[in-house]
Design goal:
heterodimer, A: about 500 residues, mainly alpha, two-stranded antiparallel sheet, about 75% helix, about 0% strand, globular, B: about 500 residues
Chain lengths: ~500, ~500
């Protein structure tokens, strides 16, 4: 693959597809969109297969001097590879979810989605600070249109809130980036990741980046745009929002905040921990009382993202690996859950939990898959959710027992609200005739949920496939932040050395 | 200093003056029948003038060789850069005029002549290196502009715009002249070079000289419509015929901004501390007031007027830092601003109802994306671009300006400025919302002629992400133009 610009090609395919969809319109648009996303998925698989685990840190690099002051520089490491794969995997499913639901202005709709895909891959592949910013910010435009044109009743308020909230978060990051490029004399991200800014400057830079990523993530208390945006967006919009867009915040922390400002990250770890603890408990409780299915899942996303942030700021390998797996897992699971909601929404056109009930009777296949995704969201062993949350919480336990304790309640509360949701929707009596008359999954819907289900199980049973490409990068990051690592609050003391001449005595003691 | 050299340096001005006078004679004998031919001839004259000024920019001309008439006039790369923008804008204002004025049967032959003289005056403004030349250029542009604003005689709003522009413009000219006389009194020179030397030598400035600087800047701030001298802009932009508004928002704005740069950096360049705080205030106030004022507007032209105030604020940030990088950033921003403004007003001109009457109310373009998808897409691109959202090219203008501010250490200024840009994003989004989210109002049904479509296509392509491919080229030209400004001092 040396020299072949596969990342540029991955950016180009959806862009060409977007123009094609816009021009073609109507039924042809969705076919073009599906084709473009499947080609990108195939390219993503090629990328994965050709990724050399244990090879160079940055692979598939490209660099062209196209612009004044910054380069068209692309390249991925294991972390970016995994998030890129998540993007290309979810996109065909998004197109599938919109196949029949979107009737008005289909050409523009699919064009917006394909444009979105280009920008998301661009965010993960960009190796230049300004290129990253452009891709990162540009995503606002298609998402604004997707929510505003094809969203629900309160779509206009939600689209404004989404746009202005995230824009305000990001603009200060631009000033920080300008300062960094000026101080370090380069816009190359890999170089900047090794550059040591003075701790005083780091504080300000960290806060500027934090403003952007915390909104994107989203962290409590700047999460309020998310439930609005999720509820009003069309199904596929919610899938992509939860699946990939939220990951940009986590990716930002792992790519910029931690390696570039390690001292400041340690300095503000208490802030991250506090916000995350509040988020886990508060948003889980809020999720418990929702009547709207999408809103419930949106709040659960905020809680899960808080598990990501504590894992990231645990400053150790387990925490970082856990955070990455939670991100990937949440991308699949929340996407799948929004899809599940969308499937029944398409039939009954309501997201009210009370309007459903007893779906296990008339929709057994649906009940099965919904169960799988519910369990994965709860974090049942054997699903992807368990691996990530376990690692993340294990990582934070080494730093702070209290944070670990409080954040673990999120798993219990998560089980409470998810199972409560599942019971009300799928079990119980068939209270409403129209809900009882709904048909089970069609072939198209099965084609969307089966790959998601398989991926969730794969990540749960054999996470090594996903951890292996990231291992070296996470180890490098761990080494980078080691100098600022805060001490753990557990006061470990060495065990009393046992007398060497009596090994069998110890053995006997253990047998008690 | 020989006359031949001087006359050669002002060749574009000579061409435009002769062209304007000839067209005036032709119009006098031929009447309104030749209006279209006169427009085409004026376009050719402007294009020829562009060809004449281009070499100076390509060579990066600067220094004494570019100085004409004993230091009164300067034909350097900086002047060339801005003149290209000015003449280009004038061509755009001529190209879109016939369709608009034919509707009212007032496509008169004076229109191209007035545009030509206004462009000539604006060109002299940017080339002036003496306050006297500056004033001549300014008045030449202004007098033509007052007539242009009132060109639709029978329309009350147009007459009001003309009168308002005249009264307030005359006041601003007076303020400027008062400042110039104070400056002359305290420095003993009206030439920029002489003023610069006098200010550099004297240590801290005398209070009277400071007042001179303040009055000069206040007079120019009126011309660029920076807060707090912006009040006339919405009324004049709304009332003037739209092709004239297009002209006002581009050519004189570029000219006044370039004139401000030359005055601040060449004449007063030795004492930046005196004017920097004024410029910082004007920049931040323009950004905020331009954004807040636009929120309640229902007329698209008024909204674009506030948008231009907002943009002037961002451009002034480049001046506030008083560095060569800042000046280069301003020029890049100006080039992008001109493209965005032409695109926005051409799009507004294309909004006509079935009878060809202009549609200017925001509610009337509701649902435009369903009835006229490409026009709506272009207008939406302009709005996102004006808001400075990447990947549209408007972002690049803000980017280079803030880059210059950060490089010069003005971080709080940059942070406040960029945070205030979010307020502006709100009303740009409103236009997109009306066009894309609302139910169609089906008002906009009229067709447009070829020049509109061509202009919109070219400018839209420039502000699209494709514009980034021009950044190296645009950056190099801006740098060489800005360097000329600093070498002259």
């Amino acid at each position: 693959m040396n020299g072949f610009p596969i990342l540029s090609l991955m950016l180009l395919v959806p862009l060409v597809g977007a123009v094609g969809s816009l021009v073609a319109g109507g039924k042809a648009a969705r076919q073009i969109a599906l084709l473009a996303t499947l080609v990108d998925l195939a390219l993503g698989i090629v990328l994965w297969l050709n990724y050399d685990i244990g090879g160079e840190q940055w692979q598939f690099t490209e660099r062209a001097r196209l612009f004044a002051g910054f380069d068209w520089a692309l390249g991925i490491d294991g972390i970016a590879l995994m998030l890129t794969l998540l993007t290309v995997f979810l996109m065909p499913i998004c197109i599938g979810a919109s196949w029949e639901a979107i009737e008005k202005r289909a050409g523009e709709y699919y064009a917006a989605f394909l444009f979105m895909e280009t920008l998301m891959i661009g965010v993960f592949a960009a190796q230049d600070l300004y290129l990253f910013y452009i891709m990162f910010e540009a995503g606002l435009i298609p998402m604004y249109l997707i929510i505003g044109v094809w969203g629900g009743a309160d779509r206009i308020y939600a689209s404004y809130k989404f746009f202005l909230y995230t824009l305000l978060g990001s603009v200060l990051m631009l000033i920080a980036m300008l300062w960094m490029a000026h101080a370090a004399g380069t816009t190359d991200i890999p170089t900047l990741m090794q550059y040591n800014f003075s701790p005083a400057a780091q504080t300000w830079l960290f806060l500027a980046f934090f403003a952007s990523f915390a909104v994107k993530m989203p962290m409590w208390p700047v999460h309020t745009w998310l439930p609005d945006a999720h509820v009003q967006a069309p199904t596929a919009g919610s899938v992509i929002l939860a699946g990939v867009l939220l990951k940009m915040g986590g990716y930002g922390f792992i790519r910029f905040s931690l390696p570039m400002f390690p001292e400041a990250s340690a300095q503000f770890a208490w802030l991250i921990f506090t916000l995350s603890m509040v988020a886990v408990v508060y948003t889980s409780l809020v999720a418990l009382v929702q009547h709207d299915m999408k809103k419930l899942i949106a709040y659960s996303s905020v809680a899960h993202m808080a598990i990501v942030t504590i894992g990231l700021f645990a400053f150790n390998v387990q925490g970082l690996e856990g955070a990455m797996i939670v991100m990937l897992s949440h991308g699949l699971v929340s996407g799948a859950l929004f899809l599940s909601v969308g499937i029944i929404y398409d039939r009954l056109h309501t997201r009210e939990i009370d309007r459903y009930g007893g779906l296990a009777i008339n929709m057994p296949r649906y009940a099965l898959f919904f169960m799988l995704f519910t369990m994965a969201s709860v974090g049942l062993p054997g699903t992807s959710g368990f691996v990530g949350e376990f690692l993340s919480l294990g990582g934070i336990y080494q730093v702070s027992s209290w944070v670990a304790l409080i954040c673990t309640t999120g798993i219990i509360l998560g089980a409470a609200y998810m199972l409560y949701l599942y019971r009300r929707v799928v079990f119980g009596d068939q209270k409403h005739a129209d809900a009882a008359a709904m048909t089970d999954l069609t072939f198209r819907e099965l084609a969307m949920v089966i790959p998601l289900g398989l991926a969730v199980l794969w990540m749960g049973v054999y996470p090594e496939s996903f951890l292996a490409p990231m291992r070296a990068d996470i180890a490098a990051l761990d080494a980078r932040v080691a100098r600022a690592r805060p001490p753990g609050d557990a006061r470990w003391t060495a065990g009393k050395p046992v007398a060497a001449e009596a090994p069998h005595a110890e053995h006997n003691e253990g047998a008690h | 200093m020989d006359w031949q050299h001087s006359l050669l340096l002002v060749a574009p001005e000579e061409l435009l003056s002769l062209g304007g006078l000839l067209l005036l004679l032709a119009a006098g004998w031929g009447g309104d029948k030749i209006a279209r031919a006169a427009s085409i001839a004026a376009c050719i004259a402007l294009a020829a003038a562009m060809a004449l000024v281009a070499p100076a920019l390509a060579e990066g001309a600067s220094g004494p060789a570019t100085s004409a008439f004993f230091g009164q006039f300067r034909a350097d790369a900086f002047a060339s850069f801005t003149k290209l923008l000015i003449y280009g804008s004038a061509i755009a204002a001529l190209a879109v005029a016939p369709q608009f004025f034919d509707r009212y049967k007032v496509m008169r032959a004076e229109y191209p002549v007035l545009i030509l003289f206004a462009a000539l005056g604006t060109g002299i403004m940017v080339s002036a290196s003496d306050f006297m030349t500056l004033y001549i250029g300014l008045e030449m542009n202004s007098l033509a502009s007052y007539v242009l604003a009132a060109f639709l005689r029978r329309d009350e709003r147009s007459a009001e715009a003309g009168l308002k522009y005249f009264v307030l413009g005359a006041l601003a000219s007076g303020i400027l002249l008062f400042g110039v006389s104070l400056t002359y009194g305290f420095t003993g020179s009206t030439g920029f070079a002489g003023v610069n030397i006098a200010l550099a030598a004297g240590g801290p400035m005398a209070t009277g000289a400071v007042f001179g600087v303040v009055f000069v800047l206040a007079g120019i701030a009126f011309k660029i419509a920076a807060v707090p001298f912006h009040m006339w802009t919405p009324d004049v932009y709304e009332g003037s015929p739209t092709p004239v508004t297009l002209f006002f928002a581009t050519a004189p704005k570029v000219g006044a901004m370039a004139m401000l740069m030359r005055v601040a950096l060449e004449a007063f360049g030795a004492q930046p501390g005196v004017w920097q705080q004024i410029v910082i205030f004007a920049a931040l106030a323009s950004i905020v007031i331009g954004a807040l004022g636009a929120i309640g507007q229902t007329n698209i032209k008024r909204l674009l007027a506030y948008s231009s105030i907002n943009n002037v604020g961002f451009i002034l940030i480049g001046l506030a830092v008083a560095t060569q990088q800042g000046a280069s950033a301003m020029l890049t921003y100006l080039a992008i601003y001109v493209a965005m403004t032409i695109a926005s007003f051409v799009a507004v001109l294309m909004l006509t109802d079935a009878n060809g009457e202009p549609v200017e109310q925001l509610v009337d373009i509701a649902g435009l994306s369903r009835t006229r998808p490409w026009l709506a897409a272009a207008l939406a691109a302009v709005m996102f671009s004006l808001a400075g959202i990447p990947p549209l090219f408007g972002f690049w203008g803000k980017f280079v300006v803030f880059q210059a501010a950060v490089a010069a250490g003005f971080i709080p200024l940059a942070a406040i400025g960029i945070a205030a840009s979010v307020i502006g994003a709100f009303y740009y989004l409103k236009v997109v919302k009306v066009m894309y989210f609302d139910e169609p109002a089906d008002k906009v049904t009229g067709a447009s002629d070829l020049p509109h479509k061509l202009l919109l296509l070219v400018t839209s392509l420039f502000i699209s992400p494709l514009g980034y491919l021009a950044t190296i080229w645009l950056g190099a030209l801006s740098d060489s133009a800005a360097a000329a400004l600093f070498h002259a001092a």
